[in-house]
Write a structure and sequence with these properties.
Elements (H helix, E strand, L loop, with lengths): L1 E5 L6 H14 L7 E5 L12 E3 L18 H5 L5 E4 L2 H5 L5 H13 L3 E6 L3 H4 L3 H10 L11 E5 L13 H15 L2 E5 L7 H6 L5 E4 L6 H13 L4
Parallel strand pairs: 1-2, 1-8, 2-3, 4-5, 5-6, 6-7, 7-8
Bound molecules: 2-phosphoglycolic acid.
2-phosphoglycolic acid binds next to β8.
Length: 235
């Protein structure tokens, strides 16, 4: 089970350091549960512990003339080897195209990163039904090497992110089950995961973990979800 926190544009470097320190102090020895924390780029810190720190984004280049971006050298400086690619906010707010996203995927794959690759449908697509939703999700997998061993897919419906709305457990299971058949990879669910729904979501047979945004900004809440993951035994 993977429990991941996406801080987005929250928590300064100082706050991130305090968060990680507190979290490591709370964690029991983890077995079968992997923890990931994705701070803002300027809050990346070299971190040794059970939680693995990853990048929310980087430009697919070692370094160069890409104003405002960070590249591979900046991640290497902090020993970062895991990255989010294709997050809904990168797609819809920052207008990254599927071609841009596939290039980013390829670059970080070539550099051996663990890639948490995010996909998810907007509400207008969900309203068209399951077939339309699955067809849409497949377009977000175009150009992505699904056989990459360090690929984890996060299913995050756009309408569920930051909205307090979530699909029903049945809806999550249906989509994850279909995605398992299409992609055959580990699958996280994301979108308004909180302390009060994380356990039920993680208990679903085709869910391998959660990617949590606002619900993970307080360390005690994230820790509570990690604890939930610890208690779940899947065959
Ligand atoms: P949320 O965000 O938990 O605040 O809905 C999840 C995400 O965007 O990864």
């Amino acid at each position: 089970m993977i429990v991941a926190a996406n801080f987005k544009t929250n928590l300064t470097r100082l706050e991130t350091g305090e968060y990680l320190g507190e979290l490591e102090g709370m964690l029991p020895k983890l077995e079968g549960v992997e923890v990931r924390v994705f701070p803002a780029s300027s809050s990346l810190v070299p971190h040794k512990g059970q939680a693995v720190v990853g990048a929310q984004n980087a430009y697919p280049a070692k370094s160069g003339a890409f104003t405002g971006e960070i590249g591979l050298v900046h991640l290497e400086e902090f020993g970062i080897e895991t990255i989010l690619v294709g997050h809904s906010e990168r797609r819809h707010v920052l207008h990254e195209s599927q071609v841009d996203i596939a290039k980013k995927f390829d670059f970080f794959k070539e550099n051996g990163f663990e890639i948490i690759y995010c996909i998810g449908e907007p509400l207008s697509v969900k309203e068209q039904g399951l077939d339309a939703t699955l067809a849409y999700l497949q377009t977000q997998l175009e150009g992505i090497d699904l056989s990459y061993a360090k690929l984890v897919v996060a299913y995050e419906p756009v309408w569920a992110i930051g909205s307090g709305l979530t699909p029903t457990l049945e809806e999550i299971e249906t989509i994850h089950d279909a995605l398992k058949r299409i992609a055959g990879v580990k699958l996280l669910y994301g979108g308004s995961v909180k302390t009060d729904n994380a356990k039920a979501i993680m208990e679903l047979p085709s869910v391998d973990g959660v990617l949590v945004g606002s619900g993970a900004l307080k360390v005690e809440n994230f820790f509570s979800m990690i604890n939930d993951a610890i208690t779940i035994k899947k065959g």
